[in-house]
Amino acid sequence: MTFATSARDTALLGGEARAGGTDVQERRRSGRSSGPIVDISRLDELRGIAWQPDGSATLGALTAIETLWRDPVLAAAYPALAQTSGALATPQIRAVGTIGGNLAQHTRCWYYRNPAGSCYRSGGSSCPARDGDHHFHVVIDLGPCIAPHPSTLAVALLAYDASLELTQQGSVPIEAFLGDGTDPRRADTLRQGELIVAVNLPTPDREERAAYSRASSRRLADWALVECVARMTIRHGYIDTATLAVGGVAAVPLRLREVEAQLVSRPATAETCHQAAAVAARRCRPLPQTGYKVDLLVATLGDALTRCLPAVRA
Amino acid sequence: MRTTADGGIAVGSNVAELGAFLYGWRPKLLCDYDVVSNTSPGTPFRGPGGPPFAWALEQAVDEIAERTQTDAITLRRRWDRSPKRRALYDWAAALPLWRQRARSGSSVGRFLHGVGFSASSWFYFVDSDTCVTLHFQRGRLVASASVQDMGTGSRSVLAVALEQELGLDRSLIDVRIGRSGPTHGPTSGGSRTTTSLAPAASAAAARLRRELGLRHGAAVDWPAVLTAYDGLEVEGRRPADRYGFLLPVSLNHLRVGRGLSGAVHVTEVEVDTLFGTTRVLRVFVGIAVGRIWAPDLARNQVEGAVVQGLGYALYEERHLDPSSGLTLTTNMDDYRIPGIADTPETTVHFEEAGWGHVPGGGVGLGEVATLGMAASVGNAIYNATGWRPLDLPVRPDRLLEGLRSR
User: Fold this and answer.
1) Which of B270, B343, B397 to mutate to test the interface with A (most CBs of A within 10 A)?
2) How many helices (H) and strands (E) does chain A have?
3) By C-alpha distance, which of B184, B205, B198 is closest to B135?
4) In this structure, what are the phi and psi dihedrals at residue A163, rounded to the nearest 5 degrees?
5) Cross-chain residue pair B323–A221, CB shorter than 8 Å
6) Which residues of A are less than 8 Å from B270 in CB distance?
7) How far is the alpha carbon of B281 from chain A, nearest alpha carbon, in Å?
8) Nearest Cβ partner for B328 among A26, A133, A222
9) Sign of the torsion angle spanned by Cα atoms A255, A260, A261, A262
10) Is the pTM of this model over 0.90?
11) 3-state secondary structure of B114
């Protein structure tokens, strides 16, 4: 194992980057990471939150997930990101897990993680989950790999149209970074040896109303069955803008623009929210065992959207 | 009761067999079948066979209570003549949580509340060959036993027994366990360690008093005695029960004692009808195993049993690839057990009477404390929703489907 001295040199060291290690270390055990490790956790250039002149924030890739909701200024500026960050994994994982690592982690599919398994993602030529046990897999089938993308933060960043600073490709929008989910061999477009340097967020919208909704069986430490990030602004009782991103349902987190279109310029009521949420079901093509995720998708959307509305006085 | 067990290459399911030991001794039809396949073997949960048995039987009893419009505790009390468990029924029936529970299926809204009850019993096993050695060493009393500690207090149980028998401050006692010595000790399993070890320690202490000519309860200057008799060593053996054991033979040191232990669980759940999740909010556990040697540790073990039992009800599931048989749940990410945030507020009540024939007056509780937990969750879900979960675990997808079928 070597310790990287700068982000740009990491590629030259020719190993797999490790930041918080919550994913890499687990893959060392399951045999899905076997080459040399380049530890980047000491790279101070990747750390910290920088505020730009236009009021937007740039988050160093090594920023701990816990910081994203504990930092009061950041949480006030980006409430959807803060709510999302506070709800994922466990306090212990959030303390060591980084924003860059969360985005670049490998799929949690139990066929990929099993040392005896073989799939597209591990260099094989098939997806054993498709005809196998895919209880936790996708409900919107985009490509040969049916494992949902594991990054919860990617869902929130997608809802913000954030962009990533990469060592080789420069600035890349999050949607382009994640790809369209059709390449079964990868869940992002990072190149060999490439690192995420920072995440650029847009100028905060002080009117933003936000909610994160997560369906999972256990309270903490569970991968979301379905998760949804909603951002909304309301003007004179009508929905002015709405941004929705969902995770747990497809090989990549998805923006639901057809649902957003059902919200904008409509009255800011629970009825509008539930009617719009129901539209999301049209996009679903459930696998034999994931039909329940259609219900959960509509449920999380409805839950997140209605929580964005002003509290109704009793 | 007929049960069919899918344990891969493992055989010997005893689920229905346990039906012989609850609700009276009338003839019952109890059949266990193993279906053997070439998948990896299923291994027992705590109280082998007990949790699935309770899941089936106690939900069936609950269903009978519902259909006959009888209080679920009253019905069990009518069938169960065991004074020990009857004391638990009376305790549970008086709990405000039980008295105030709503009619099944009457709760409305997104979050539904329900309360469920279950009863269980388990065997009294003991290792009657257990020995404890006491040794005076440099001013300290060293107690040794060939036993391991699974983290539930074999050390403390030994120290408590010696302290009570000798009136010796616990700070002067060193307990040495975790290695095989020349004397025999109990296996940590079958809820047998405490009831094997503590009476053996008491017997060793009694022998020590005789050697030193000390009366029980007499004031002793222990630091002086320990120094004066440095090197003294005595051994105590677990005495036999009054009237002997249930079976005259021991099986690899294991003996089956007389009497069955008892437990009741009263569990409150909150069902989220939107996401299909179940949260266990509060659990009241009544345990009838006689004397509790180390109350803090016993309570801790019962709390652990509650957590394990609710994990069995809601999360634990082995997934195998349907075509290759490959085990997919090979890590703690995929094989779900409860986390700290899933842990309910737990209240534990001990009924200590009824075990006078056992030296020391108490038997083990590790298994009986968890058997009925999952069943009480199932009954609570029924009370909350009016839908009865039959498949384990009660996953969100199953719950949502169940709610739709109401």
Assistant:
1) B397
2) 13, 12
3) B205
4) -125, 155
5) no
6) none
7) 12
8) A133
9) positive
10) yes
11) strand
Digit-by-digit pLDDT tens for chain B (406 residues) are 999 998 899 999 999 999 998 888 889 999 999 999 998 888 777 899 999 999 999 999 999 999 999 999 999 999 998 999 999 999 999 999 999 999 999 999 999 999 999 999 999 999 999 999 999 999 999 999 999 887 668 999 999 999 999 999 999 999 999 888 788 999 988 899 999 999 999 999 999 999 999 988 888 999 999 999 999 999 999 999 999 999 888 888 999 999 999 999 999 999 999 999 999 999 999 999 999 999 999 999 999 999 999 999 999 999 999 999 999 999 888 999 999 999 999 999 999 999 999 999 999 999 999 999 999 999 999 999 999 999 999 999 999 999 999 8
Q: How many CA atoms lie within 13 A of B168 on its CB side?
A: 29
Chain B residues with CB-CB distance to A220 below 8 A? 339-342
pLDDT exceeds 90 at position A9: no
CB contact, 8 Å: B333 with chain A? Answer: yes
Q: How far is B275 from chain A, CA to nearest CA, in Å?
A: 6
Looking at beta carbons, which residues of chain A come within 8 Å of B396? 215, 217, 225, 292, 296
Q: How many CB atoms lie within 10 A of CB B404?
A: 9
My answer on whether omega of the bond before B393 falls inside 30° of 0, hence cis, is: yes
ipTM score of complex: 0.94
Residues pairing with B85 in the sheet: none
Interchain pair B339, A218: CB under 8 A: yes
How far is CA B258 from its chain centroid? 17
Q: Which of A116, A131, A292 sits opposite B323 (nearest CB)?
A: A131
